[in-house]
Amino acid sequence: MLIKVDKAKRVQNSFSFTYFPVLSPLAGQGRAGGSGKRVSMRSDVCRIRIRTRKVGKGFCEENTTRCPSSTDEPSRKQWKPGCASRMPNSRKPHNVRIVAAVCGTKIYMNRELIVNVNPTEISIALCEDKVLVELNKEQCQTGFAVGDIYLGKVRKIMPGLNAAFVNIGHEKDAFIHYLDLGSQFSSLQKLVASYQPGKRGIRLDAMKLEPPIEKSGKIGSYLQVGQTVMVQVAKEAISTKGPRLTADISLAGRNVVLVPFSSKVFLSQKIRSAEEKKRLKGIAAAVLRKNFGVIIRTAAVEAKDSDIEQDIRSLLDKWQKTLQNIRKNPAPAQLMSEMNRANTIIRDSLGGAFSQIVVDDEAMYHEIQNYIRQIEPQSEKLVKLYRGNVPIFDNFDISKQIKSLFAKYVSLRRGAYLIIEHTEAMNVIDVNSGNRTKAEDDQEQTAFDVNLAAAREIARQLRLRDLGGIVIIDFIDMHKAANRQLLYEEMNKLMATDKAKHTVLPLTKFGLMQITRQRVRPVAVQDVTDVCPTCNGTGRIEPTVLLDKKIENKISYLAQDAGHKYIKLRVSPYVSTYLNHGLWSLRRRWMWKYKIQLKIVADQSVGIVDVHYYDKEGKDLYKD
Fold it and tell me: Which residues lie closer than 8 Å to 128 by C-beta, 6 or more apart?
C-alpha cells in the first residue's frame, strides 16, 4: 500500500496530514505482489499525526506498527519500518518519524480532557488532536442531573396525557409518563413504603416481587395526588420544561449498570465473542443477589474479574444507602446524586485512552485523581494540576475555538460555510458553497465535495453543541442519485461515533436530510457575542483615557478602606499589556503606593475594558 500525503502541516514538532490508501503498483488487478490473495481496496480518508526525528538530510523515516487484529499481509501492505522517502509538495524535505498505529481506518488519537472550575460552574472540554469535539458545562450545586434519584411527591395527575407532574424540589415540576413507571412499579412502591420513618424496611433480595403492571394501563390507577414516589432523572430541565423522570431505577458503574427488580444479565451489543460473553455472565451471576440484574458495558471486556465483581458490589452498597436515605429526608428530597460531570465523562470514556486530564482546581484535581485510582490505578498519572497564570482554556487554545465554533456562521474550507439556527421545534442547518462555485466548472462535483465537507463538520457540531431533537439539513442540490446515496452513507459513518441515540434518514428530493438525536441536557449554546465594551449596552460611553484612574480608585478603596493586601485583576490582554508596560509600570507604581501585592492576569474572555477584582482565594471582590 502506498501513502499519498496531501497538504502536510507543521505544528511545533509535529505534522498533521491527510493520507489516502491507494493500491500498490505491484498489486495489479487487486492482487498483492503476485501473492494470489486479493487486497481490500478502501477509499477511506483519515488523519494522523507524526513527530519529528532526524534520520538523514532531506529524508523521512516511516515506522508504523501493525495492529495484531489486522488480517492484511504484514510486509507487503503495511508501511515498512525504515523506509526512506521525501515529503511531497515541500521545498525543504522534513525529517519525521511516524508514531501513529494504523489498522484500516482506526487511528489512535491524542485525547485530552481539560477541566475549568469557576465558582458558579465547571466547564469540561474534550479535545482530540487539539481539536475541540465536546464541551460540557455543569452548574455548581444545582443538582437535578441525569441519573440523580429523588423522593418526590405527586402534584398533579394528567389523565389526558396519561402522565403526572411530580415535585422533586426543582423550580418546575418534573414530568413522568405512565410508560416510564416501569413494569415493577408496584414492587418499588412496596419497598419505598417499608423504609418510611418508624418502619423496619425490607431488603430487595428477600422480598417477593409484585405482579408487573399493565402496559396499557392508566396512571391514575397507580398514582394519586400527594403520594410519595421514588424517581430518577432521565432528562434534565430544558428551556421551559422541567426534568423528565422515570421510576425504572438503574445505577451506572464503570463496567456494569445495576438494574434492581430484575433477574437478567444483559450484555452490550458491541461484545461479540461468545467466550467473553460466557465469562462476563459467569462473573455477574456469582456476585448478584436475588431480584437484581445488570447490563454489562463494553468497558468490561478489558476489565479483570475482580474489578467487575467490585463494581457490582459497590453498586449494591450504593442502592442500599439510597434506600436508607428515605428515612432521613422527607419528600421532596435527593436520595442519591450522580458523580459530577467530569467524573461521568471519565467513567464512560476512559476506555478510549486519554493522553492527559488537566484540571485548574486543586480540590477537583484530587477528586478526579481519587476516582481514577479506584477504577483504573494505572491511569492515575494522566491527571495533572494546571498552575499557569494564563487561563487554562486560553492555554490550550479552547477559548478561541469556542468563539469560532459556536457562532451562527461556521466556516468550511475554500469559502464554503454553514448557517446553524436553533428554534423551539427543531434545529436547522443550511449548507452554502460561498464563492467556491465561481472557480469550479463541474457543479455536480463541487456540490458533492462541499456536502461531504459539510457532513463532517455537521457531525462534529451536533456532538459539540449537543444538539438534540429534530435536525434538518439543507444540503446543496445534487442531481445524481449515486452522489446522494454516498452522502447518506458517509453521514451514517460520521455519526457512528456519537454516543447519543440517533437516526439518520436519506435525502429527500429537495436535498433535505432529517436527523433525530437524543437530547437529555440543555443545548450547549454559547453566547459568542460580546456586550459593547465601551458603553456596556447603554449607548453612552465614558472616556477610555480615564480607565487607569478608574482602576486605581477601586484598588485604593480595596487596599485602604477594605484592608486587602493581595488583589488580582483579570483583564483583557490589551489592558494587561498597558498596565505592565515599562520598567516603572502602572502595576509597580500601585504596588509601591498602596503597599499591596498586585497580580494582573490576561484573559481573552474578558471584555476589552472590563476589570474583575479577586482576592487570594479567588473570591470576586468587585466587578466593573
Answer: 109, 110, 111, 112
Cell of 63: 515506522
- φ/ψ region of 154 (left if φ > 0, alpha if ψ in -120 to 50, else beta) reads beta
**Of 45-54, 115-124, 261-270, 322-331, minimum mean pLDDT range:** 45-54
Would you call 253 helix, strand, or coil by DSSP? coil
Task: Express each pLDDT in 410-454 by its tens digit.
Answer: 888 777 889 998 887 889 999 988 765 555 567 888 889 999 999
Check if the beta carbon of residue 210 is closer than 8 Å to that of residue 186: yes
What is the chain's alpha carbon radius of gyration, rounded to the nearest angstrom? Answer: 29
Specify the DSSP element, H or E, that contains 421: strand 417-422
Q: What is the 3-state secondary structure (H, E, C) of 544-587?
A: HHHHHHHHHHHHHHHHHHCCCCEEEEEECHHHHHHHCCCCCCHH
Q: How far apart are CA 62 and CA 85, in angstroms?
A: 8
**Which amino acid makes up residue 325?**
N
Tell me the three cell numbers of residue 279.
465469562
Of the candidates 256, 261, 242, 262, the one whose C-alpha atom is nearest the C-alpha of residue 284 is 256
CA 186/CA 163 separation, integer angstroms: 16
Q: What's the full length of the chain, in residues?
A: 624
CB-based burial, 568-603: b 16+ in 10 Å, e otherwise: bbbbbeebbebbeeeeeebbeebbeebebebebbbb
pLDDT at residue 36 tops 90: no
> pTM (2 decimals)?
0.54
When pLDDT is cut at 50, 70 and 90, the band that residue 597 belongs to is very high
Provide the sign of the torsion angle of the four alpha carbons 282, 284, 289, 295, taken in this order: negative
